[in-house]
Amino acid sequence: MTHPTIESLRSVALVGHGAAGKTTLTEALLHHSGAITNKGAVDKGNTVCDFDPQEKSAGHSVYSAVTHFPYEGAHIQLIDTPGYPDFAGQAIAALAAVDTALVVVNAQTGIELMTERMLRSASDRNLCSMIVVNKIDADNLDLETLVADLRTRFRGVVLDLPAHGNRDVVEVLEHDSGDSDFGSVEQAHRELIERLVEEDLALLEQYLEDGREPQAAELHNPFESALRNGMTPILFVSAKTGAGIPELLHALAKLAPNPTEGNPPPFFKGAGDAAPEAFHADHDPAKHVLAHVFKVISDPYMGKVGVFRVHQGTLKKDAQLFVGNGKRPLKVGHLFRLQGKDYQEVEALLPGEIGAVAKAEEIQFDCVLHDSHEEDDIHLKPLRFPKPMTGLAVTAKRKGDEQRLSDILDKLVQEDPTFLLERRAATNETVIRGLGEIHLTAKIEKMAGQYKLEVETQPPLIAYRETITQAADGHYRHKKQTGGAGQFGEVFLRIEPLERGTGTEFVDAVKGGTIPGSLMPAVEKGVRLALENGVIAGFPVEDLRVVVCDGKTHPVDSKEIAFVVAGRKAIVEAIRAAAPCVLEPVVDAEITIPETAMGDITGDLSLRRGQITGTVARNQGRITITGKVPLAELADYQSRLNAYTGGRGHYSVEFSHYAPVPPNIQQKLTSGFSVKEEED
Fold first, then answer.
1. What is the pTM of this model?
2. What is the pLDDT of residues 16-65, one digit of tens each?
3. CA 236 to CA 258: how far, in whole Å?
4. Which domains does the chain carry?
């Protein structure tokens, strides 16, 4: 394969809800382009992108996978992503590497949770988006209603229409007549042209005044402009039969933006208190290198692999790269282009290309790679991930594997931005958190399968928090004399509540040097130790400002350890006097069920302290209920849902906010808890 030019590159992420057929669609695109000779099938476990043993066993994607192929002079880089909400982190991360989000919608089920979530995430990153309606070969479809919904909710514009019993499609940009299964080709053509000429004043004048319709070749730039401004083309395919596949490929090759035509994500330079400076990479292959790591893989043979997109400069084999603010360069011994599980070695990568480097222990997810010390303190626009809320306490099943467990969990955290690890000293627990039960089960299976480590788990732990509801003062004098030099430190501080979600602020307001600046870090350390371990129930304390206002020292006995203890005990006293309360996580729940089960489900949610916020009718007699529910009330909810729906219901949750628990629950959580007194 010849090396692509920047103008020929098309970078696309296939995103959407689970079972929309993204991996099967990828196979169809690869096969029609000639990149593979035979189409694989998900149920046979022989697709290019679902190559991991976990994916073959589960029958659906768990990780994102990169592939590429040429078509009509374009070089298409495609990232196939998981569709289940539990693996949303993989899909969201892929958006940082592409110019177009290709949102796949199941024609049978219509708009679903991940359809909306991924279009929202793409819009948040100012990405161009297209919608592909897949499975048009299925029976009993109402495509006309689906298209009307897509038009209304996502500014959808039809780019082709199903024809001949959904066995074919007719493209409407270049054709103003023809047969279609619903709607008018002529009307769809006119609506598309009128939308595009709005982007070009000269074409608009010709169209309105002279009545001259522009040729397709004249509409490339207006099409790119319309995409950048939020137009969402709608295409129809059947990945199974091949209907619409040539038209989709043609649209990607001729209409999707190349790296110089899309909306590039902003980089930010600067750290500390000053506002960071925003700038865009200019895709100049002659400038210094800027690349962004959007995926990390722990490969048993290749070591730690960083998958990245080059945004500026030409990255060559044997180059020296700096990782973030690191001062020691990383030598790129081998440079790869990915084709599913295969690593294809290349000599260089241009701006816009997606590549990988192996055996790179220094690389971290979301880091920026560069070849100039002038590019320190640079990061890409941050990705917004859902907050992991579902938790399990894990321990190694075999004695002596505790360190291995720790090391493996650290690797899993590096691979997945929505997988968190908490080591809670107060309860001596190791807690893993993810986006749902399926997410955590996948991690446990990976530990057993890839790393041969068996673990034991405890029921899900809820990420409760503590906070205060009023201001209060705290004071503690630590004085210890054991013969010889002693310990002395005295701290006066004041705390006040902050808005929910603000976090913790530590303010040094000491005047006159009553606590020297050299000892203030020790005070802060003691304060943060207490906040981390909890005061009334053993959960982290947040959303408060701590102002250290005075103190005393001793010329001989004042040491750091004395002020750590004084700071810790002063903040504990203050929190106990500040009307503390326990907060619980509340989630946005989306529950899809048969309509016949609606009464049972809504009644059950009310018993679980849930608040229903809306209902949406879906295809095939199904309905989606949305609401806000305390996470603690959803333990083993899938089992209960199965009982009410005969196994035909499913749900997903996303963090919403923290709220105070009812008094009876707070009493239960705080009963018997006492602050752990550490050795002074």
1. 0.84
2. 999 999 999 999 999 999 999 999 999 999 999 999 999 999 999 999 99
3. 22
4. 6-175+230-254 (3.40.50.300), 276-380 (2.40.30.10), 390-461 (3.30.70.870), 466-579 (3.30.230.10), 582-666 (3.30.70.240)
